[in-house]
Amino acid sequence: MTLGPIEEELAKARAAYRNRGRWGEDDALGTLNFVDDAIRAHAASLVRRGRSFSLAQGYDESGSRATTRWHGLGRGHDTGRTWHGSSHPAADDDGAVTGVEHLRDAFTGRGVLLDVGRAVGDGRGELPDGFPILEEHLRDTVEAQGATSSVRRGDIVLVRTGRLGRVRRLDAWGDYATGDAPGLSFTTLGWLHRTEIAAIATDTWGLEVRPDEFAEPAMSPLHRIAIPHLGLPLGELWDLEALAEDCAADGVYEFLLVAAPLPVTGAAGAPVSPIAVK
After folding, report:
1. What CATH number should be reported for the domain whose range is 6-277?
2. How far apart are CA 276 and CA 85, in angstroms?
3. What residue ranges in the chain does DSSP mark as E strands?
4. pLDDT digits (tens, 9 = 90+) for 63-104
5. What's the pTM?
6. How far out from the chain centre does Cα 146 lie?
7. In the 8-state DSSP scheme, what is residue 22?
8. Is 97 helix (H, G, I), strand (E, B) or coil?
9. Sequence spans of domains, the chain
10. DSSP notation for 169-216
11. H or E element, residue 29
């Protein structure tokens, strides 16, 4: 699928998908404002078996040498501006900080796994590199998985493509943290905005599909709208393999998720060691 000229598509998306200013000019949480105490209490009630899963990749010589991470609101420049409309990566013109340290308490809530690799991928549950995940694929995955994977306001959504599983199977780490990969289509921005999710993460290095869907080169077009305009934190390089196996086995795709980033003052993003509990 090839979209229209990049600047034309970006302009349309800026106008259609915008939360900037929704929670005040000094807001530091973005869509994490959708997570309230009631949502966190409900997420805690989802723990039935007490089984926990680390969703962080190892950082060593034998692995990907890439960090499981969140991109916060100081990242994702578009037209030279961040979430607060600033040209600075961490602070707006009045000094209000969008550093990732402000998110340290916010990443606790209902996690939901959308295993797109298993739902629409090949027999191994994997999507090919360059596969754009469309809104219809997300809907088809929810339908295939059942009611526990319904996406609600304030959810932290995890999308499994199967790319990490393929890299491990083939021992092909060389291009895992760069290069072509399956990922979210630029056209899913409407879904990301409409569902009012709190955050989204995948098992790939860039979250969005690589190469992108534009005829001309585009630098992370989904990031350029999702972070500075939606205020949506994006997670990359998450290890969803063991969690996905368990969800497929018991048919339950919702869980308590605790995924606080390292509170690095002023940083646009930070490593995270997420824990899912079922």
Report:
1. 3.50.30.50
2. 34
3. 52-54, 69-71, 108-115, 132-133, 156-160, 183-184, 199-202, 234-236, 254-258, 269-271, 275-277
4. 545 889 999 998 766 766 778 766 554 444 433 468 899 999
5. 0.94
6. 21
7. T
8. strand
9. 6-277
10. HHT-GGGTTSS-B-EE-GGGHHHHHHTT-SEEEESSSSSB-BS-SBSS
11. none
